[in-house]
Structures are given as structure tokens and as C-alpha cells.
């Protein structure tokens, strides 16, 4: 017998972040188009009335939360409306949350789940700017500030905005198959898929952008050519500075040393290639600037606590290792 559609209920409230709603909504709706009967989408506010998002967009819900059927997936977005949670919304979550098969939050939606006691004793994440608040106000929650999303049994929390799309794609892959999730990702022109343990900050975001154009050009060059000679001497030539002056200026303007910046770019490149291609570990090591598989293995063990072959196994169980 065919499986009934999984009902995905998105909770709406005033000053919600619109992309936290529409991003996952587009993913699940896209999957439903590709696999009819897989999902049934519903949006609901406390009283069933339209809500105004933090960007001024008006969203019209399908129904009131009190009239909503029990969903398979309850998705709570974030936004300014989570800063001072509506007590009635928190109570509704406290009453209905424990009964759902899958509980999901995007961005500061985790604050609402935590306020309802639904994250107690669990690992969770939220937008980096609110991780400290989540940990301070809800000490029963183990807050992980680094990952873009965290899965703990049937509860999944994401870091915010675009990471909600990453998490939704991961759920579609889990519910249906990788090909469906990949097709949805292609239609949305996004990567399939950033792993949950990828840091909220990429190397480019974690480091400041240099103010001087020669140093910004070096940052771009490093990102686009991880397999090049990225020694301080070589990069200094590109910046038209002496090695000593370059190293000092790069660190002062980006907040990290050239070596650490290069290490992070190479690690990100290697992870992405392992996740998204069938290239061998040796090919990945060479393309990412490690030179040898052993050098890449040491970098992965130091940064991630796992070897490249094991890392790939999470995404492609049958691809070359």
C-alpha cells in the first residue's frame, strides 16, 4: 500500500523571518511535484489570521493552529517574533510538540522550542548570534554553535535562513531518495547538500574581508585555486608585498594568519568534492592542495575527527574511497 502523504505544518507568527518559511516550503513543495503524494503542506497561525513578516511581507495561513491536524513534521521558523515569544504559541507547542513524528526549527525557532521545553536534554543549534542566549536561558539544552544543523533523534534544529533549506533537503533525501533531493536542489540552484556538521561560517565568512584590494584579491585567489602554491612567499608575490609585510597585513585585516586561512579553504574544498563527486580520495587530495591522501587524512582527523574515507561514506556509501 502506498504511504500516505507526510503532512508538514509550518507555524506562522507576526515578525517571522519570511525566508525561514519559504525556503523549506519550496523544498518540500518541489519534492511533492516530483513525487506526487509525498507531502502535504499546511501553514497555520494562532488565530488563522494573516501575519506580517519581519521584512513587511504578509503571509496568509491555511488555518488556525487549533484546527490543524496532527502533522508528521512540525516546522517552527525564526525571526524577530521569537525574541519575546507569545505565551499562547509556546503553550500550543508544549502541548502539541511531543506528539509529532518530527520536530524541526529554523534559525531562532529553536528559542520557541526551548521555551516549550521541547529541547531539554537534547543537542541543538540556532543562528550563531543567538547560541549564547539559547544556552544561557535554557541550560538543559546542549547548544552546538558550529554546525549549520543538528539532528537529535526526531528533533532537528538549523542555524538559520539558508541552512533551513539544507536541512529540508536532508529530510527529503531521508524520506524519499537522494535523486529527488538533488533535483530539487538543482531547481533551487543550491548545493546538495551542505552536511549538518559544516560550520556556520565558511573560511570567507569566518575571516574578515581585507580592506585593501591586493589582499582581497589574494583571498579570492586562495578560494579559487586551493591546489596552487599558497605559501606565504607565493601569496606575498601576488599581493606585491614582502613576505613579512604580507603576513602581518593579512593577519591584521582578516583576523587570521595566511596559513590558517589556507587550511580552512582547502578543508572546505575537499569536503565539498567528497560530498558532491565520485572523485577518488587521491584525486580530491591533489585538487584540494594536500598533495597526498595522507596529508589530507591528517587534516581531516585534526579538524573533524574522522578520515576522508569515513567522511565520504556518510554521503556516498558505494563511491570510491
Distance between the termini: 38 Å
CATH architecture of the largest domain: 3-Layer(aba) Sandwich
CATH class of the largest domain: Alpha Beta
What is the chain-wise order of helices and strands?
A: EHEEEEEHEHEHEEEHHHHHHHHHH
Structural class: alpha/beta
Q: Report on the biggest sheet.
A: 7 strands, mixed
Report the principal-axis shape.
Answer: globular
* Tally of strands: 11
Q: Mean pLDDT, as a whole number?
A: 88
Count of helical segments? Answer: 14
Q: Work out the radius of gyration.
A: 22 Å
Keywords: Transcription, Transcription regulation
GO molecular function: DNA-binding transcription factor activity; sequence-specific DNA binding
Protein name: GlxA family transcriptional regulator
Organism: Streptomyces bauhiniae
Task: Please describe what this structure looks like.
This protein is an alpha/beta fold. The chain has two domains: 6-188, 3-Layer(aba) Sandwich (Rossmann fold); 202-321, Orthogonal Bundle (Arc Repressor Mutant, subunit A), CATH 1.10.10. Helix content is 45%, strand content 12%. The chain has helices at residues 18-34, 87-96, 109-115, 131-137, 162-175, 178-188, 203-206, 213-224, 232-239, 243-254, 258-276, 281-287, 293-304, 308-313; strands spanning 6-11, 39-45, 51-52, 58-59, 63-64, 73-76, 102-105, 123-124, 142-143, 149-152, 155-158. The protein has a seven-stranded mixed beta sheet, with helices on both faces. α1 (18-34) packs across α6. The radius of gyration is 22 Å and the shape is globular. The two termini are 38 Å apart. Mean pLDDT is 88; it is low at 317-321. It holds the Pfam family DJ-1_PfpI. Keywords: Transcription, Transcription regulation. One of its GO terms (molecular function) is DNA-binding transcription factor activity.
Amino acid at each position: 500500500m502506498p504511504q500516505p502523504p507526510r503532512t508538514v505544518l509550518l507555524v506562522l507568527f507576526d515578525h517571522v523571518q519570511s525566508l525561514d518559511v519559504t525556503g523549506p516550503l519550496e523544498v518540500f513543495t518541489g519534492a511533492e511535484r516530483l513525487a506526487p503524494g509525498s507531502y502535504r503542506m499546511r501553514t497555520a497561525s494562532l488565530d488563522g489570521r494573516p501575519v506580517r513578516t519581519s521584512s513587511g511581507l504578509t503571509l496568509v495561513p491555511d488555518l488556525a493552529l487549533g484546527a490543524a491536524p496532527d502533522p508528521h513534521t512540525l516546522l517552527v521558523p525564526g525571526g524577530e517574533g521569537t525574541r519575546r515569544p507569545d505565551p499562547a504559541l509556546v503553550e500550543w507547542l508544549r502541548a502539541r510538540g511531543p506528539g509529532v513524528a518530527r520536530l524541526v526549527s529554523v534559525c531562532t525557532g529553536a528559542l520557541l522550542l526551548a521555551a516549550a521545553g521541547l529541547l531539554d536534554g537534547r543537542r541543538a543549534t540556532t543562528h550563531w548570534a543567538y547560541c549564547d542566549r539559547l544556552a544561557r536561558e535554557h541550560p538543559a539544552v546542549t547548544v552546538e554553535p558550529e554546525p549549520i544543523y543538528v539532528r537529535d533523534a526526531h528533533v532537528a534544529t538549523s542555524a538559520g535562513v539558508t541552512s533551513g533549506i539544507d536541512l529540508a533537503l536532508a529530510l527529503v533525501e531521508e524520506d524519499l531518495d537522494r535523486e529527488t533531493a538533488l533535483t530539487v536542489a538543482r531547481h533551487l540552484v543550491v548545493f546538495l547538500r551542505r552536511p549538518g556538521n559544516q560550520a556556520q561560517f565558511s573560511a570567507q565568512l569566518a575571516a574578515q574581508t581585507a580592506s585593501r584590494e591586493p589582499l582581497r584579491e589574494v583571498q579570492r585567489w586562495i578560494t579559487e585555486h586551493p591546489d596552487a602554491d599558497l605559501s606565504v612567499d607565493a601569496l606575498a608575490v601576488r599581493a606585491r608585498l614582502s613576505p613579512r609585510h604580507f603576513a602581518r597585513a593579512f593577519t591584521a585585516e582578516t583576523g587570521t594568519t595566511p596559513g590558517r586561512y589556507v587550511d580552512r579553504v582547502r578543508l572546505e574544498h575537499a569536503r565539498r568534492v567528497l560530498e558532491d563527486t565520485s572523485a577518488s580520495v587521491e584525486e580530491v587530495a591533489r585538487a584540494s592542495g594536500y598533495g597526498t591522501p595522507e596529508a589530507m587524512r591528517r587534516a581531516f582527523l585534526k579538524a573533524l575527527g574522522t578520515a576522508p574515507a569515513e567522511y565520504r561514506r556518510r554521503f556516498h556509501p558505494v563511491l570510491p574511497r
